[in-house]
Write a structure and sequence with these properties.
The complex is a heterodimer of chains A (445) and B (498). Chain A has 445 residues and is α/β, with parallel strands linked by helices. Chain A is 39% helix and 14% strand. Chain A folds into two domains: 259 residues, Type I PLP-dependent aspartate aminotransferase-like (Major domain) (Aspartate Aminotransferase, domain 2), CATH 3.40.640.10; 112 residues, Aspartate Aminotransferase, domain 1, CATH 3.90.1150.10. In chain A, strand 9 and strand 10 form a beta hairpin. Chain A is globular. Chain B is α/β, with parallel strands linked by helices and 498 residues long. In chain B, a hairpin with an 8-residue loop joins strand 11 and strand 12. Chain B is globular. The chains are: A alpha/beta (445), B alpha/beta (498).
Chain lengths: 445, 498
């Protein structure tokens, strides 16, 4: 090959790099490993992680069963090792799959259309806010405090340099957004109201009532959905203008936080302000149905600095996992799956409620609930770890006013015996704290 | 067919409708275990919030699902089927061991909020990959949080902005060469910077004199891709860095083309202050039909205070943990810690190669591109004779005289069993044909590709209309994109709904 090219050594090909910047030593990285060594190394890391624990964590990352069909199909090389389907004739498989994904997401969210995917729920929410700003020509965004705290942080990062002022709205006793405060905060300069439902506490919001408040002032309503399984049994936010969903629950591994699958859905009239890729149906020269990426004039590779977003590579293969999951469960299965989640969490909340304080009982919940204990939840969780249980997420860093509260999640994978064991340990803690208090009072007397 | 294609042949391809067209009530591919807690009265629990109907969601059986997606998959081209010479995309082999280790129980199932004590394995992966990438780039620190290259750009420019802000003036604009990826200007706009175009010189490189004239204290940074999108190494990169630094500006490097540099040179050594990597290009994580990607951002020390939070630290007791207390941080750019599954794959790739393997990879990538360049010179116009690194850009200048443009040639390449090269980019070349073979291709595949391209050039001379009508052997012929955009059909609807 060198001869064909007309050079003597491979290094001649690197002559454009000025000599003083050429690396004349080996990179200081681990030596080359055999496949068996690589597998061993990662297996060791897995053992240092929580393997075989019963986990009650949700909070934006949900452990649902992943039918094996998903990985069997997404590992086909034709999906795994193909590029973004710009050359439609050679990528009809990916394009039709995206079209079906868009259809199912639209159907589930109650919107007219959906895009091919965003990075995740947090960045999708930030993009939705920027989209609302473009549509309305207004600047302000009003955000529920019960939106996932990390989503709020990401929106803050994006909004800072867009000159989008953010207002945060508190929640009430019921765990729902404070509608009075919301009404007062929404003005003629508000581009959007952004809520999450079920919200960070697992509480289902009254979307219709919130939409009314927003729409009265010409403000758009964005609904963020972090737990997609809820759509099987909770009425979708049909009154929203934009839905930003994290679809991880649909067949995507919890995987220490990523890759996940964000997706935006909206009304027909807003499609040209939507970021991200869209597959559309068309015909070929012979009138045969086919699919292409469409409305590309919204995108960075055409519009450069005037694009709706800088997004390019998104989450296609993860969207395919979501797609296959939605196809497997379908019309009936998704409802049954959601029902089981609802029942498990209802049982969990009721059991915990016998020994500790369960917050936000005044509104419907999906599969998460907030439990306040007397003892610091970090201390309780530390003890639970000894029983191979990962307890709920302590909320004091995120919501200091909730004190010793923690956010617990039960899915269809949470067994009754797991719940009973965890409840038993929390009950022990509560009894311990009570008797300690009694002893203290005794001593004080 | 006019010319013989040695690589591709016709084979039976299955027809397959939309999944919704196969749906009928009662079919199911799911089964749940019996509920071990009391049933709930959903109407009572949810009231008006209860969803009664899931509309036209499908009802199909498992074998139908397997066949559906398997049939669809066969309509795709893929690296696993052959060379995928998309310039700027680095379509290299995606090792299967990467897929295997990413699915190991304990790594695939870790919850992002589980206590650090039982997350040491995941944290060790973050730390080890970070250390490797810092060494490979010659930078001082890194964040793995960005979800893809474009988000890496955003993160990098946010840090640039925060840096200038900390000096009292965020500055107004970013300089971007006319050969840059579209994400660069789109990102600059998102960060609130104006975009100023920088012209390339006649060798396809940044015009250093023009840069000197345009550089002033309003400029926050220059975003440069190196090698640039012509596959040309910016030979005066150190002068470019010097010019930027002299006026207090920073040098951002788009690392999309890092596959030409790994183990041979380090951006940190030639003056780059901040850069992103694409793990889905250089580090072999699969493109998956358009993601997931991963876009770590490596930086020099001056930018370290502004890194997104949290950052991974080694605690006094030797264990690893997340540090959230970063008062000057630009904040979060994504929930949790980034596309962790991609970190596992990229690290497995680094392990499989080691220092020698990574260097050899780069050498082979550059060797392959130059072999193609030599093989196609004469058949196609080479607009810039400057030496090529890992990719080469030809143009359709010769063929366009017969009315055949880069996209037409690309469509004909499909008939020969190759995915097309990148068409019509970079914008500074009219009718660009951007070819990047990567190191993965054996000589036999390169020869087949050269043969195909030459054969197509001959076809253009003999019968241009035949090429204009391509593809001839794909499942479908050219699709009407104008109609798709004019009256968008973006979802399926049941017939009764119109």
């Amino acid at each position: 090959m060198l001869k064909a090219i007309g050079v003597r050594t491979v290094d001649d090909l690197f002559s454009p790099i000025p000599a003083e910047f050429r690396l004349s030593r080996d990179l200081a990285i681990p030596r080359e490993m055999a496949e068996s060594e690589i597998v061993d190394w990662f297996k060791q890391r897995a053992q240092e992680n929580a393997e075989g624990y019963a986990c009650f964590l949700g909070a934006g990352a949900y452990a649902h069963y992943r039918p094996v069909v998903i990985d069997a199909l997404v590992q086909r090389g034709e999906f795994l090792t193909s590029y973004t389907p710009y050359q439609a004739e050679f990528a009809q498989g990916t394009l039709q799959a995206i079209f079906e994904f868009q259809t199912m997401v639209s159907e589930l969210t109650g919107m007219d259309l959906a895009n091919a995917s965003m990075y995740d729920g947090s960045t999708g929410a930030a993009e939705a806010v920027m989209m609302a700003v473009r549509i309305t020509g207004r600047q302000g965004a009003v955000v529920a405090r019960t939106l996932h705290p990390e989503y709020r942080e990401v929106i803050g990062t994006y909004a800072t340099h867009q000159g989008i002022p953010l207002t945060t709205i508190a929640y009430t006793e019921s765990g729902r957004i404070d509608r009075k405060a919301l009404e007062a905060a929404v003005g003629d300069d508000t581009a959007c109201v952004l809520i999450q439902s079920p919200n960070f506490f697992g509480t289902v919001e009254d979307v219709e009532a919130i939409a009314e408040i927003a729409h009265k002032r010409g403000t758009l309503l964005i609904v963020s959905i972090a737990e997609a399984v809820s759509l099987g049994i909770i009425e979708p936010p049909r009154d929203a203008d934009i839905v930003s969903m994290e679809a991880q629950s649909f067949g995507v591994p919890v995987g220490f936080g990523g890759p996940y699958c964000g997706v935006l859905a909206t009304k027909d009239k807003f499609v040209r302000q939507m970021p991200g890729r869209l597959a559309g149906q068309t015909v070929d020269k012979n009138g045969k149905r086919g699919f292409v990426l469409t409305l590309a004039t919204r995108e960075q590779h055409i519009r450069r600095e005037k694009a709706t977003s800088n997004i390019c590579t998104n989450q296609a293969l993860v969207a395919l996992m979501v797609n296959i999951f939605m196809t497997i469960y379908g019309k009936v299965g998704l409802r049954e799956l959601a029902r089981q989640n609802l029942a498990k969490a209802a049982y969990g909340a009721a059991q915990f409620g016998k020994h500790a304080k369960v917050h936000f009982t005044g509104a419907p919940r999906f599969n998460e609930f907030v439990v306040e204990t007397t003892e610091d939840p970090y201390a309780i969780n530390s003890r639970l770890l000894g029983h191979k249980i990962v307890g709920g997420l302590p909320l004091k860093k995120l919501y200091p006013e909730l004190g010793n509260a923690a956010l617990w999640c039960c899915t269809e994978l949470t067994t009754r015996s797991m719940i009973d064991t965890a409840v038993g340990l929390v009950a022990d803690s509560e009894r311990g704290m009570r008797s300690m208090k009694e002893v203290e009072e005794e001593v004080a007397r | 067919m006019k010319h013989m294609t040695r690589k591709a042949t016709r084979h039976v391809s299955q027809n397959e409708g939309l999944i919704f067209e196969k749906s009928s009530p009662g079919k199911a591919a799911w089964k749940l275990p019996p509920l071990d807690v009391p049933e709930v009265d959903t109407a009572k629990m949810l009231g008006k919030q209860e969803r009664k109907d899931l509309g036209s969601m499908p009802e199909v059986s498992e074998i139908e699902i397997i066949r559906h997606f398997t049939r669809l998959s066969t309509w795709n081209y893929a690296i696993d089927l052959g060379m995928y010479p998309l310039g700027s995309c680095t379509m290299k082999y995606n090792p299967r061991v990467n897929e295997f280790v990413s699915r190991i129980e304990g790594l695939a199932n870790g919850h992002p909020y589980q206590p650090e004590k039982i997350s040491q394995g995941a944290l060790r992966i973050l730390k080890t990959l970070s250390d490797c990438l810092v060494e490979i780039t010659g930078m001082d620190a890194i964040t793995l949080q960005p979800a893809a290259g474009a988000q890496g750009e955003l993160t990098g420019l946010l840090m640039v902005r925060a840096y200038h802000q900390s000096k009292g003036n965020p500055r107004k604009k970013v300089l971007i060469p006319d050969s840059a990826h579209g994400t660069n200007p789109a990102t600059a706009a998102t960060v609130g910077y104006g975009v100023e175009n920088l012209k390339s010189n006649d060798r396809g490189m940044v015009d250093v004199a023009a840069l000197a004239a345009q550089m002033n204290e309003d400029v926050a940074a220059l975003m440069v891709t190196n090698p640039n999108t012509l596959g040309v190494f910016e030979q005066e990169i150190h002068k470019i860095a010097g010019l930027m630094h002299a006026k207090g500006g920073l040098l951002y490097m788009d690392g999309a083309n890092m596959n030409a540099l790994v183990g041979k040179t380090r951006p940190g050594d030639f003056g780059v202050d901040v850069m992103h990597l694409n793990l889905h290009k250089t580090f072999s994580t699969p493109h998956g039909g358009g993601g997931p990607g991963s876009g770590p951002v490596a930086i020099k020390k001056i930018l370290e205070p502004f890194l997104p939070k949290p950052v991974v630290i080694t605690k006094p007791d030797g264990t690893l943990g997340f540090e959230y207390n970063r008062p000057q941080s630009i904040g979060r750019v994504r929930a949790f810690y980034g596309n962790f599954g991609m970190f596992i794959r990229a690290l497995a790739y680094i392990f499989a190669n080691g220092p020698d393997g990574l260097r050899q990879t780069t050498e082979d990538a550059v060797l392959n591109a130059n072999y193609i360049r030599k093989g196609l010179e004469g058949a196609y116009d080479l607009p810039y004779s400057t030496p090529s690194m890992h990719e080469v850009v030809f143009s359709d200048k010769v063929q366009s005289k017969k009315g055949v443009r880069t996209m037409d040639l690309a469509k004909r390449l499909i008939d020969y069993g190759f995915h097309p090269y990148t068409t019509a980019f970079p914008l500074i070349v009219s009718g660009a044909m951007m070819i990047e073979p990567t190191e993965s291709e054996p000589l036999e595949e390169l020869d087949l590709f050269i043969e195909a391209m030459k054969s197509i050039a001959e076809e253009v001379e003999e019968d241009p209309q035949f090429v204009l009508d391509a593809p001839h052997n794909a499942r479908i012929s050219r699709l009407d994109e104008t109609a798709a955009a004019r009256k968008p059909v973006l979802r399926w609807k049941p017939e009764s709904a119109g």
